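Bug #77: duplicate submission created two jobs. Keeping one. Sequence:
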Amino acid sequence: MTPRPGHEPSRTEDVTETASFVRTYILTAGRTRPRHTLSLETVLEPGPGRAGPGLPYECEQILTLCRRRRRSVTELAGTLGRPVSAVKILVSDLLDARALVMPVTTAYTTSSAPLIGPRPSRQLLEATLAGLKARWSDAYPQAV
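Kept job's structure:
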């Protein structure tokens, strides 16, 4: 914690910060990276599997939130009040248990060459362009 100018951190603040760090370390079992590649906007929904009995309480909270509606990694981290890096590790554990899945809307992907993988569909690209034009209309010159 960086002290504010003219503010001497109290012993309580030091203990609280250390306890939070230790709790996150225990929560992730000392791991610093998830097994799955997850971005901040990765959307999750409940899957057919179940969380194992050895998973932390926060995993059950993640599942409860995702059962109500799809949630992003960032939204989960904010709701739980945990660092995004720790939530990614917990989500990765739940993905391994198939308790969570990352849905892919087939209407927005098209198949391509086997080595390249799925590509965004024309519909998705047009929707993205329309959103960008709506947001920054002055950045896109009108067609003549």
